[in-house]
Amino acid sequence: MAESYIPSEDGLALTWMQSFAGGIVAKPSTYQLTAADAANIQSVVDDYAAAYAVAANLSTRTAVTVAAKDDARNIAEQLCRQFSIQIKFNAGVSDPDKIAIGVRPVNPNRDPINVPESSPLLNVIGATPGSHTVRYADTGTPDSGAKPFGAAQLQLFVAVGATPVGDPDTAGFNGAYTKNPIGVGFDFADDGKVATYFARWASRKGEVGPWSLPVSMRIAA
């Protein structure tokens, strides 16, 4: 994982996320976040806690409830990681306050690794009913699927509408990814619409690079 202080075991990960969310909800201004940020974090962690409880109960544990738990964890972990990186590298938040919510402070002895100045290249390599498969590369190494030095993850954004769009501000955050390829699913209501993808590299410090060019593909019904 990008941040090793988030445990891999489901129950321990939930405990960490609950402590992280609870500390931020109690004092959002201490972490230079808004009340809305805190509420969003708490909401996805609560969703994960509910899904985990169902999947952990032998009487309700099925392949469906386990998959729902995994999806809820992925959503909660991505959001918690995004804000934990932001807090980790925020010099305005004290080290004791970071430690209080399970965030390891910056090691001043490490050399900084900056986000790449290049942008991703996106390609939709598969389109099946209700889903796309997206592959990424870097403008500096278009024949390789590896992330460039300094990129901890690729942030993928998607806009769905009647026609392609050219402004990344119209796209919503889909997820942060570290491996190729990426599967993107859509609701039945999106059948026949056009999905436009944008992406950017993000460093471990939460810094982001320039946007990719948009890539569009119709969603098959």
Secondary structure blueprint with pairings:
Elements: H1 10-26, H2 35-56, H3 63-88, H4 95-100, E1 120-128, E2 131-138, E3 153-161, E4 172-177, E5 182-185, E6 194-202, E7 215-218
Antiparallel strand pairs: 1-2, 2-5, 3-4, 3-6, 6-7
Helix pairs in contact: 1-2, 1-3, 2-3
Report how far apart the termini are: 35 Å
Overall tally of structural domains:
2
Overall CATH class of the largest domain: Mainly Beta
Report the radius of gyration as a whole number of Å.
Answer: 19 Å
The mean pLDDT is 92
Order of helices and strands: HHHHEEEEEEE
Per DSSP E runs of 2 or more residues, the count of β-strands stands at 7
What's the overall geometry?
globular
Q: Record the strand order, biggest sheet.
A: 4-3-6-7
Summing up helix and strand content along with how strands pair, one would put the structural category as alpha+beta
CATH topology of the largest domain: Immunoglobulin-like
CATH architecture of the largest domain: Sandwich
Share in helix: 25-40%
So how many helices? 4
Unreliable segments of 5+ consecutive residues: none
Q: β content, as a range?
A: 15-25%
